[in-house]
Amino acid sequence: MIIGVPKEIKNNENRVALTPAGAMELTKRGHEVYVQTTAGLGSGFEDHEYTAAGAQLLPSIEAVYEKAEMIMKVKEPIEQEYNLIKKDQLLFTYFHFASYEPLTKAMIERGATCLAYETVENPNGSLPLLVPMSEVAGRMAIQEGAKFLEKPMGGSGVLLGGVPGVEPGRVLILGGGVVGTQAAKMAAGLGAQVTIMDINLDRLRYLADVMPANVNTVYSNEMNIRRHIKQANLIVGGVLIAGAKAPHLITRDMLKDMIPGTVLVDVAVDQGGCIETCKPTTHEDPIFIIDNVVHYCVANMPGAVPYTSTIALTNATLPYAIQLANKGWKQACKDNEPLKKGLNVIDGKVVYKGVADAFGLEFTPVEQFL
């Protein structure tokens, strides 16, 4: 198969979909890998490392899309890429369709086969291609939240770990999944008082067992959220419903109950966000303030630490990419049920129910194409 790796052109997105090591694993199996010149530079990988791994370089994003049967990316195509996508071309990337209707309609119009990292799902409900970036984003949520709690950044001036004689900051984490767990580890390590909320009691029991003493678990409901936001200095939204929009657990009216200078970090913003007042921001302009509450809503948080993120992502995506390249997407998805769940749009039809429901579009069962 001919695989293309374009340079990411989303604002401040420095990751790349494939490391040189990943390129080597594909080329040694007889596949052709074409990488856009300088695509890996933001992550610390030079062009010569790709050519040494057996990949070939192309000078432009247009050339990569024109050449490739399968495009591997990190983030969803943006508007200037839409017309480069060919009918029946396989796109393997993060899409987060349910949060952005124009992208969904563009991919339907282009007739592409869209296989989304974020909806590849194991039998136990885990999302193997979302996990590594969720781990990065969860840890970064505390790192960034702590920074924006500083007074010059707009925050309340609280040091999360406190010092002897001064109580530590309070961190509220909505969601006890991968993001929430990693955020709790980081916040607890800094010495903050941490509360994790979730609706899954089994998950809360597990977290209560493995987390240190400065992490508490609380069942998530509106009354408990309203009570805890009044004391929190940093609130992290880490709620995910696979392939669908996240629910708004913090609403506009709740901001008035927060401490002035509270920081909200909505990691779910690329799925619509679980905080009503959040809208996507960029690393270039990461925050905005509403009612004296700082909102950090960067939709590609791991893009700020691209070396770590690119390696972590390739470690997860490569086994699936090899299957797609070796067998073609149809056979690979027949043989691999988790991979099949990654299919969102095929030949102008929406085949993932969460996406169809988000925009009132017709849903077509994926089995019609396999």
From TrEMBL:
Its EC number is 1.4.1.1. Keywords: NAD, Nucleotide-binding, Oxidoreductase. The keyword Nucleotide-binding applies. The active site is at residues 96, 270. Pfam families: AlaDh_PNT_C (PF01262), AlaDh_PNT_N (PF05222). It catalyses: L-alanine + NAD(+) + H2O = pyruvate + NH4(+) + NADH + H(+). Residues 149-297 form the Alanine dehydrogenase/pyridine nucleotide transhydrogenase NAD(H)-binding domain. InterPro entries: Ala_DH, Ala_DH/PNT_CS2, AlaDH/PNT_CS1, AlaDH/PNT_N, AlaDH/PNT_NAD(H)-bd, NAD(P)-bd_dom_sf. GO terms for molecular function: alanine dehydrogenase activity; nucleotide binding. One of its GO terms (biological process) is L-alanine catabolic process. Substrate binds at residues 15, 75. Residues 4-137 form the Alanine dehydrogenase/pyridine nucleotide transhydrogenase N-terminal domain. SMART domains: AlaDh_PNT_C, AlaDh_PNT_N. The keyword Nucleotide-binding applies. CDD domains: L-AlaDH. It is an enzyme of class 1 (oxidoreductase). Belongs to the AlaDH/PNT family. NCBIfam families: alaDH. This is Alanine dehydrogenase. It comes from Phaeodactylibacter xiamenensis.
